Amino acid sequence: MDEKRRAQIDTYVSHLSGLIRRGRELRDILAKDPSSKSALIAVRAWQQDCGVAVNQLSGGSKAHWLARSFSEAFLMRSTAGSAAESATLCEIIDRLVRVVEQGAESLSRMDSDLAISASSQAAPAPHRFDFVHNAQLRPILEQAYADSRLALETSHYGRALLTSCGILEAIVTDALEYKGRSALAAAGAPDGEIADWSFETRLGVAERAGLVHSGCARLPPIARRYRDLQLAGGELSRDMSVSERDAKVTGQVLHVVMRDLDPGR
Predict the structure, then answer these.
(1) Cβ contacts of residue 179 below 8 Å, gap of 6+?
(2) For residue 84, how far is the Cα from the chain centroid?
(3) DSSP labels for the chain?
(4) pTM of the shown model
């Protein structure tokens, strides 16, 4: 195996290891607090990232064993093997983690000398998300941020945009939850749970409440409807087209909002 191919596999195994770590951390958070709104948002973004990774590893074929395993992870099986009912979220996370682990194992077998522990040897994680009030989400957001940068650098613009939007929604939701409903009501927040608000509504309330400035106005239209860009199970729609500019501008908006929420950056 040539060095270029080895480096590509090493990079992707590291990416899969990050997805596995994020999944386990999110499962632990939800096991303690199943109603954590910010964690639920982070799970949706994580599932999307897993779907993209599986789609790439399976060559876009739904008949591939890994793609089938990914789809089946969302179902509870009866003793006869037929679909019975929806699995719980923690069960789905555990199953998706195993699917990603299988993908990583398959890649690692392509070269017996592949260093699959590369991610554990990386430099200490930065502290970009110390401003997030939910401390358990911080390392998950750090990994997601690294994944979004890697996706952009490797020209996977759809994945970069989706991951950046997921991070943006998670940190804005965290800030809204900490602000409190009375303060949000004064900013014209709608009734109902924050988790039920649309992405656009959360950004608008956050701006009117003074949590962020007007940077979100630069979000491309495709980023504003990022929740609609994937099919059930987090798999990307085939007709989705995300340009390099869309991905880069979305990442820039994320940086602006991070500075808004953490003025000391």
Answers:
(1) 209, 211
(2) 28
(3) --HHHHHHHHHHHHHHHHHHHHHHHHHHHHHH-TT-HHHHHHHHHHHHHHHHHHHHHTTT-TTSHHHHHHHHTTEEEPTTSSEEEEPPHHHHHHHHHHHHHHHHHHHHTT-TT--TTGGGGSPPP--TTTT-S-GGGHHHHHHHHHHHHHHHHTT-HHHHHHHHHHHHHHHHHHHHHHH-HHHHHHTTPPSS-GGGS-HHHHHHHHHHTTSS-SGGGG--HHHHTGGGGB-GGGPBPTT----HHHHHHHHHHHHHHHHHH-TT-
(4) 0.60
In this predicted model, what pLDDT tens digit does every residue of 108-151 receive, in sequence order?
Answer: 765 543 343 333 344 455 678 999 998 888 888 888 888 888 88
Q: Phi first, then psi: what are they for 76, rounded to 5°?
A: -95, 135
How many angstroms separate the CA atoms of 45 and 39, rounded?
Answer: 10
Closest by CA to 11, choosing from 151, 130, 127, 145, is 151
Q: What are the structure tokens assigned to 118, written together?
A: 């590369």
Q: What is the distance between the alpha carbons of residues 172 and 93, in angstroms, rounded to a whole number?
A: 23
